Amino acid sequence: xxxxxxxxxxxxxxxxxxxxxxxxxxxxxxxxxxxxxxxxxxxxxxxxxxxxxxxxxxxxxxxxxxxxxxxxxxxxxxxxxx
Length: 82
Description:
Layout: H1 2-23, H2 36-42, H3 49-56, H4 66-74
């Protein structure tokens, strides 16, 4: 059981940098955050895009950080990219 936990933790740790890189492709101007405009452009068919963006913006600063995006993906708040 201990081996399984260690293996799972290792897999998650190794996949986090790749996930972060994939997520930050949403950052069109490479300023380190994703604006509502950038988010909307990435999800043109998402009907409730503003609501999803607001829910993902947990610190309510009006932009999504890398950490907020990862958390939103992991909780399935944000769908896979189109």
